[in-house]
UniProtKB/TrEMBL annotation:
Binding-site list for heme: 386
Source organism of the structure: Halobacillus yeomjeoni
Name used for this protein in its record: Cytochrome P450
PANTHER family: BIFUNCTIONAL ALBAFLAVENONE MONOOXYGENASE_TERPENE SYNTHASE, CYTOCHROME P450 FAMILY 4
Record's keyword annotation contains ATP-binding: no
UniProt entry tagged with the keyword Repeat: no
One Pfam family of this chain: p450
Family: Belongs to the cytochrome P450 family.
Gene Ontology MF terms in the entry: heme binding; iron ion binding; monooxygenase activity; oxidoreductase activity, acting on paired donors, with incorporation or reduction of molecular oxygen
Cofactor requirements of the protein: heme
Amino acid sequence: MYHLKSRTPMGQLNSFRKDPLAFLERGLDTGEDVVRFRLANKRVTLIMDPDLIKQVLVVKEDAFQRFKPYKELAPLLGQGLLLSEKPLHKQQRKIVQPSFTPRHILTYGEEMRRKTIDSLRGWGKKEKRLLSDDFMSLTLEIIASTMFGADVLDGKEQVGRSLEEAMELITKRVRSFFKAPKFIKTKENQQFQKAIDTLDEVIMKIILNRKKTGNRSNDLLDTLLYSQDSEGHRMSDRQLRDEVMTIFLAGHETTATALTWTMYLLLTHPESYLKLQAEVDELCREEVPTMEEIKEMTFMRDVFLESMRLYPPAWLINRMPIENIQVGDVGLRTGETIMISPYLMHRHPAYFDNPEKFIPARFKQGKLLNVPDFVYFPFGGGSRICVGKHFAMTESMILLGALIKNFHFTLSDIEYIPEKFPLVTLRMKDGLLVHSERRF
Ligand code: HEM
């Protein structure tokens, strides 16, 4: 174990806040499996050994909760799946999970294709596009229609903007030491409340519309509305709102971010771009690949997996021990912060040759060979593993296949070097501006 020492009362807080990825990389550079440091008065243990990570996320997961500062997300996500703790989490996960079976994903896949076709038909013959925004808005539309049978077209910009604003303000609060309590009407607190109010309004409209019509459907909203606990009680409106908001947020930004980085990597690796285009041209017979076709597109899957190795949307996973606990030979204390970073592990020199290089061929049949569990884990692990993993993979394959099939892209500025912007997800700071041109 390595101790990053600091003499100031703030510990490493300033360095972490200024550039969290560069700070974490210093941890990796120590060559140790575990690095301990202080963020202000908080003890932090950064774990970089796959077996210890497995202990925390899987084997001894009952001894851990989510990290306290995630509570800053509470006004947005409430007690939805992402933030709830046992026993509520277990109960809600049991309700939500069955909406993500392969049978459901098959139905969602058809809707994803329809939305993609509609959206791409509106694109011009030759134009400049901010692809990162296109991905955000398309994934938002897809999540709304597949999960909640809702068309958010009207309020799409508003929902997207409000979610973005809320997330930025939350990240600012998580990273700052002094923060005004929520009840004080600072400009930021007011902005935050306004964003939440806008989102609440859209979500309550979706829920009330469905309740009013009484229409049954094969989607998540139906499951949430009609599930009952062992005593026959339905979910409260508040819980419904929290679950819907959580899926809205967790279900679109992550995928959009992953797709943005994937396109950037393709545009800067022409040999991979051409190879992917050849695969898509050979296998995709219609405007947008079918569910059967995406199964055959193995190079496309490897490209996407390799892109999430370099730029995992969930770049940091935090936990907090609820009791003093030993993992391996490391003693962890109640209430301290445990950091586990897919971003670091995915670039760990002990497991990857040329870790910084984009090499889709590292993956064979969608797997990394000779790499232990929890070296590559873009979707997390244990009982809190991403519930939308297969949804995200399917959606990404459909969108990527459709773009490559119908358009030719080049970077708007061929020298563009994007800046990583680690909010809750690993965004691209100024987005991805491209020239797009129809191929047919
Ligand atoms: C490329 C896209 C995605 C990535 C990389 C991703 C990654 C993750 C990760 C790492 C976690 C675990 C966090 C932790 O353990 O603290 C997680 C949880 C979660 N994800 Fe995803 N996700 C993606 C897409 C989606 C989609 C499309 C949905 C919904 C349709 C979704 C819904 C959720 C939910 C609800 C949780 C919380 C699960 C729980 O705590 O039980 N995610 N995701």
